[in-house]
Amino acid sequence: MISYERRNQIKIQCLECGQYFAQISHLHLEKCCNLTPKQYKEKYPDAVIVSEETRRKISENHLDMSGENNPNYKGGIVKQRREQRYNRRQNGISCLECNNYYESLVPAHLKSHWLSIIEYIEKYPDAKLMTDEVYLWFARKPTSFEGVG
Hints:
By secondary structure, the chain is mainly alpha-helical. It has two domains: 4-66, no CATH class; 81-140, no CATH class. It is built from eight helices and four strands. The strands form two sheets. It has a two-stranded antiparallel sheet. The protein has a two-stranded antiparallel ribbon with strand order 3-4. A hairpin with a 6-residue loop joins strand 1 and strand 2 (20-21). The longest helix is centred in the middle third of the chain and has 16 residues, at 76-91. The radius of gyration is 29 Å and the shape is elongated.
């Protein structure tokens, strides 16, 4: 059995309806208690909205995501996306209509240029439709009839 003191650290009680939560959300207040967070604070000025345990976890997560651990720090995610684009340029194929790079030119993309695959091949006879990696993946892929005895 959790002591009353420990339970107050883990969960807090909504002073309007008596239910226990890790934090009292605006959705709970609006749906169950018919109050906005501002009205709840006005009605119960000393009320705690977030439990100590939840507050501690939030601050730990914030520390874990600070500085170099944050993917947005010094171009973290942006840098990754830039590298992906660079890799696509190095290893991908170019659509000769829009000059964007892809692993394979799919009918949906060609349709944006009002072309079918056949029309694209007729227009650009030497153009590749997929990278060597994608081609090899399709070549390795077993058909549904293999292994059926």
